[in-house]
Design goal:
The structure is a single chain. The chain is mainly α. Helix content is 77%, strand content 0%. The protein has six helices and no strands. The protein has helices at 2-15, 24-31, 33-57, 61-80, 85-95, 100-106. It is globular and about 45 Å long. The two termini are 32 Å apart.
Length: 110
């Protein structure tokens, strides 16, 4: 999985220098962080709705599709802010043997 994220990170980084007319990602970068965040929020909502539908129908195809969109737009957001996918993978790895309760306590979160 991490090799796909790494490769996608490279592609997204390359799109920063492309013309906004040449790619969807370049056009998002040109519109700025607010447009990128709007897309992340939109994809988040669509993922939530697809999960509810999947629970009711047992069909997870739309859930997988919408989750891919959410992950993709989240990666665009990270790239726009110069954060590589590996940073998120490293954080997940750091949490791997830590219980969720311990992790939350370490942040001082309620």
């Amino acid at each position: 999985m991490s090799s796909i994220l790494t490769e996608l990170g490279r592609v997204l980084e390359a799109r920063k220098n492309a013309s906004p007319d040449s790619s969807y990602v370049s056009s998002l970068y040109a519109k700025g962080i607010n447009k990128i965040l709007e897309k992340v929020g939109e994809e988040c909502t669509e993922t939530i709705l697809a999960a509810k539908d999947a629970e009711n129908t047992g069909d997870t195809r739309d859930l997988v599709y919408e989750t891919a969109d959410l992950w993709f737009h989240s990666l665009v957001m990270l790239s726009h802010l110069d954060v590589e996918p590996q940073a998120v993978l490293d954080e997940l790895a750091r949490r791997f043997d830590l219980s969720g309760l311990e992790e939350k306590a370490s942040r001082g979160t309620k």
